[in-house]
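Customer ticket, subject: "Can you confirm the structure for CRAL-TRIO domain-containing protein?"

Message body: Hello, I'm evaluating your service for our small team and ran a test protein. I'd like someone to confirm that this is what the system normally returns, since I don't have a reference to compare against.
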Amino acid sequence: MEADVLNALNTQTAYIPGGRDRDGHPLIVIPVPFYDNLPWMKGFLETTVKYLLGALSEETTAAGFAVILDAQKCAWRSARQYIRHVQSLLGPHLDSFLVIRPDAFWEKNRVENCTRQHRQGEPIVISKSRLVKHFDWAELPEELGGTAAYNHDHWIQNRLRIEEFRKSYDKAIADLENLQQALPDPGRPVARASESEVSLKSCRALNQDAQKQLAQVLDGDRHRSSSNNFLKDFSFNPIKPNVTSRSSKMTVGNKLISHIGDLQSTKPLITQDLLDSREQVKHMLNTLEKRQSTINGALLELERQVEELRELATLEEGVSYVTSWILTTAETMLNAQLKVGYDVTTADKLRLEHEILELQCWKTYGFYAELIYKIDNFPKMKDSAAYQDVTSQREWMDFVCRSFAQRLERRRNVLITSVRFYRLVAEYFDRTSEVFQSLIMGDKVDDFDLANAKLQKLKDSQQTLGELEASVEVSVS
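Agent reply: Thanks for trying us out. I re-ran your input and got the following:
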């Protein structure tokens, strides 16, 4: 509460004692001071009336008020000035306007209020004894001859508590609005995991500040004392406006609603502003809970998006790793193996080295197959830009891996053919040596027909070997 408003309320230039007229309109009492410093007091009155109208609900102000101007201690000239000032401040909200004058006034002046029809908002000058026509004595404060007890200091304490809650509420709403503005637009999902993580980190920091303020507003203190002890402590330990302790900040939210309810059940009269404030506090708490629920849902959605984008980023890193490994490491190892050998031993050694290369590629092939499965069966964000990027990279990885696998298979077939070729060549030379030993280097040949047949067989084998060599050269090329 601002200092000028608090000073104006402390002067008690206008107050709501809690009573009502016979038609049920809330009572506002405005005492006119006996000393002649009206400009100063009028400023306090204007500030007080504005505050009271702001503290009441629209339904209450629209229904109108029963205003009593207590002009028993002032001159009639001052009373007339106050009447005009009150009419300018409360004109649209005046249901009845009673001006109380002392008995001496009626002895000197003859005032007839029944000579003409009374209009709403016009003052009715009466004595204090005639208030019973408009009010029950139980509805009037003791200053006006009634029996209702009114403590203005306690009323100010209640208003300070309510204003403390409003201040906490405004701060909480501002924090929630800042958090909501920081959240990404649901219609425009975040495209990259890095962007979403930065946004999530910022939102979490704002959410922590908002939750601290909400903890004060929603009042999580479940272990408070009984209502009677609480009211006793409240009545005899007034809250000062400059108090900044944690206990003063906790007098908000549900505890405030409970306190007003306890006042209503224990006091014969309760001011209308407290009743309206209780409904306003309930409405504000509901607003906070709804706003918090909406923001919590948005935060959960953002966290879900971040988690999915992280998964996509992990898949993207895996695709990049597989593609890079195939195009660099695997390609280098394959290009280093271009020979086919010059005999059975060297060809078989090259075949074993190629099998080692294939074993080294199998691990990457397994990772490749896992990535293909995860990308094709990714359950969410099918239409997002991040998923489309991963899909494009997946197609490129698939092309690179399949092309490299085909080259490995051709290389393996060439080496197998080379081994078979050199084995046939070795077998050919072994058979040739046997023929040479038997026909050329051996004893005298008597069977020329057998020698001719073996020579023809040797020519056929040589022709077959030439054809096999030609096929190997074609395969290598």
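A couple of notes from the result: The radius of gyration is 50 Å. The domain at 337-476 is CATH 1.20.58.60 (Methane Monooxygenase Hydroxylase; Chain G, domain 1). Feel free to reply with more questions.
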